[in-house]
Write a structure and sequence with these properties.
CATH class of chain A: Mainly Alpha
Largest sheet of chain A: 2 strands, antiparallel
Radius of gyration of chain A: 19 Å
Distance between the termini of chain A: 43 Å
Helix content of chain A: over 70%
Helix content of chain B: 40-55%
CATH class of the largest domain in chain B: Alpha Beta
Shape of chain A: globular
Largest sheet of chain B: 7 strands, mixed
Structural class of chain B: alpha/beta
Number of domains of chain B: 2
Order of helices and strands of chain A: HHHHEEHHHHHHH
Radius of gyration of chain B: 23 Å
Distance between the termini of chain B: 77 Å
Number of domains of chain A: 1
Oligomer: heterodimer
Number of helices of chain A: 11
Number of helices of chain B: 11
Order of helices and strands of chain B: HEHEHEHEEHEHEHEHEEHHHEEEEEE
Strand content of chain A: under 5%
CATH architecture of chain A: Orthogonal Bundle
Number of strands of chain B: 16
Chain lengths: 287, 361
């Protein structure tokens, strides 16, 4: 039972981790609760669904196309909605409301195009792979690998490249970054594209694992935000480990009581963190 | 100015022409039927099917002689309980609906006391008999007690001795399980092991399925609806479980029926072949998505009003309760129980080649 519990924490945590990292990356340069990121997740899943079922593309071609589409959508939203709003001095609350409005429009569009029903992405990703002492569906294994790979890549990008330095500069003080000659808008758009890629990938993997429905993005994003807050922003380590912490708490709750308490456990932890450690567990202390 | 006068004259002339051609208002009294259904959201397929059913029903009904005209007003609850009371209030107070139609027990339970209070007839497609309590509430259902008894008998027949149960936190699922539990406690031939309660939006059953695998019951009873059943069955397959799953209406809404290949379950009274054919011709759809129950409801309402020959709701309901037994509907012959419960008869189905096939009636 312990092994099953650990594996489930790993699977669920990896899923939350991708969303948490995508969210944390985006909010590092565009600091507000961007609910449209939920739509980006759903676009990933529905993109693959549309490309495989309607355009008859193979999953190998459909997955990167859908993920790229998510990156493009994230860039377009940032460029044409949020950057203009921010430049007009919109407060984070106005941006949050705007993002909720756009999320609602996108959810309705998904309804219109694909119907409200629950759908399943088929293909070989659902097949089990044997890993010696246990087996799991390929898609879950890929989710775990993707989570660690994205963590490694984003960390490398942020802390070992010049681009990473500029992102951190915009995160620390956007005005100062602008004064010293950094092209903030360009940096924000590149980060949006990266965030869109990660969230799109997360949507695709979730679609293959637990299926897709128009509201899937919002539910996932909410868990991702909780994980990012628990872990703490400032680095990718916080959201990455926060996701596993959240998954562990939820799954232990399910094991001890029942699955109906899963969300209750998550939200109690969320409230406790907001009250007693709003900076998160793994936040780097300011020197 | 001349142009303006010319345009105005044309508009007036057109208006006059339109008036002449407009049909004269019907002299028949109008019965307003307010239907509160999920027209959007994750259960909107029910709403779409219900709308089709209403259109098909009145297309035929209007060809016959009738004493009342029926006006149907659809309201979308988006499958959200919070919207139900507001929509019912709107239909009662603003639209002055004579009849309210709801689907699913938890949604019907919201409207049931309101119907009593406002003396409005309420016809619910629901399993919980509590929804039918009072003078003004009627249920058109698939007989939950009968289905639970039938499921129990089938489990015994299939050699089950020990079962684990997964119940969704929704009135309909809970009511069905309560009926089943009562039957199992009375008969004492079956041990109910672990009972797992899940939320309707649950997406992770892996740990629960592992617990079930360790318990090794003879059957898993799943009182789950779409889309929860889809996720449950997918993870059941992913987890390599072989313990058969069954229940009441378990696989009715399962999208990928290959996941339950070879499994049997008790289903609500299915649509008659005649109705399926008619629905297919009119809509082009292979599945009726419970449209037959909306047809059943419309038949009961029109039967009541036309038979009672009055708009007095108490007389209409009394007529339905006394005269509708053995009525032939889109779900076959129905039986009428006291307190406004009209039932179709459950059947046993098996998933063969990804299609539900009736194997016992």
């Amino acid at each position: 039972m312990l092994l099953v519990l650990l594996i489930n924490i790993l699977i669920v945590g990896a899923g939350y981790g991708l969303v948490a990292m995508g969210f944390a990356l985006m909010s590092s340069v565009s600091p507000f609760f961007n609910m449209t990121l939920g739509s980006i997740i759903a676009f990933g899943a529905y993109g693959v669904y549309g490309l495989t079922n309607i355009c008859s593309l193979s999953p190998i071609a459909a997955i990167p196309t859908a993920v790229l589409f998510c990156a493009v959508m994230a860039v377009l939203l940032e460029k044409f909605i949020y950057t203009p709003l921010q430049s007009k001095g919109a407060s984070p609350m106005v941006l949050l409301v705007a993002s909720l409005g756009i999320y609602t429009i996108f959810e309705a569009l998904i309804h219109l195009c694909f119907g409200p029903q629950y759908q399943i992405l088929g293909g070989t990703l659902g097949q089990n792979i044997n890993l010696g002492i246990f087996s799991m569906p390929k898609v879950q294994f890929i989710t775990i690998v993707a989570d660690f790979a994205v963590f490694g890549l984003v960390n490398f990008l942020l802390y070992h490249t010049f681009f990473g330095k500029t992102v951190r500069a915009v995160n620390a003080n956007a005005k100062l970054a602008d004064i010293i000659g950094l092209n903030n808008n360009k940096i924000i758009l590149i980060v949006s594209a990266l965030s869109g890629l990660i969230l799109g990938l997360s949507g695709v993997l979730t679609g293959f694992d637990t299926g897709l429905e128009p509201t899937m993005g919002f539910n996932l994003l909410f868990k991702g935000i909780i994980a990012a807050i628990i872990g703490g922003s400032g680095s990718m380590l916080g959201p990455f480990l926060g996701a596993f912490f959240l998954a562990a708490a939820e799954n232990i709750g399910v094991m001890l009581w029942a699955s109906e308490w899963r969300d209750l456990v998550a939200f109690i932890i969320f409230i406790l963190f907001l009250m007693f450690r709003p900076q998160g567990i793994f936040v780097k202390k300011e020197k | 100015m001349k142009k303006l006068i010319l345009i105005l004259s044309c508009v007036l002339a057109l208006g006059a022409c339109k008036d002449e051609k407009a049909p004269k208002a019907s002299a028949k009294p109008v019965v307003k039927i307010g239907v509160i259904y999920p027209m959007s959201g994750d259960a909107s397929f029910l709403g779409e099917a219900a709308k089709n059913a209403v259109n098909i029903f009145f297309e035929e009904f209007n060809k016959k002689l009738h004493k009342f005209d029926y006006q149907v007003i659809f309201e979308d609850n988006q499958n959200k309980l919070a919207k139900q009371a507001t929509l019912a209030q709107k239909l009662i107070n603003i639209d002055k609906a004579d009849v309210l139609v709801t689907v699913m027990s938890n949604f019907g339970a919201v409207v049931s006391p309101m119907a009593e209070q406002n003396k409005v007839m309420h016809v619910a497609i629901a399993t919980d008999p509590a929804v039918a309590q009072g003078k003004y509430n009627v249920i058109c259902s698939s007989n939950p007690a009968g289905e639970a008894d039938f499921l129990y008998e089938q489990l015994i027949k299939h050699g089950a001795k020990h079962i684990d149960v997964v119940v969704m936190n929704a009135t309909g699922s809970q009511t069905m399980f309560d009926f089943f539990k009562k039957k199992a406690e009375q008969e004492k031939g079956l041990k109910i092991g672990q009972v797992y309660h899940v939320n309707p939006d649950e997406k992770d059953f892996r740990l629960m399925l592992h617990k079930i695998k360790e318990n090794q019951p003879d059957y898993i009873l799943a009182f789950l609806f779409a889309p929860t059943i889809d996720v449950f069955m997918k993870q059941y397959k992913d987890g390599g479980l072989t313990i058969p799953v069954t229940g009441v209406e378990t696989f009715t809404y399962l999208r990928n029926k290959t996941l339950s290949e070879g499994m049997w379950y008790v289903d609500a009274a299915p649509p008659t072949d005649e109705y399926v054919k008619k629905y297919q011709i009119k809509t082009g759809s292979d599945t009726t998505d419970y449209a037959e129950y909306m047809d059943f409801v419309m038949q009961v309402i029109t039967f009541g009003y036309e038979g009672a020959k009055t708009k007095d709701k108490e007389k209409v309901i009394s007529f339905i309760e006394s005269q509708s037994n053995q009525m032939l509907t889109a779900v076959g012959k129905i039986t009428t129980e006291p307190d406004g419960v009209l039932n179709g008869q459950p059947v046993l189905k098996k998933i063969i080649n990804a299609e539900p096939v009736v194997i016992e009636e």
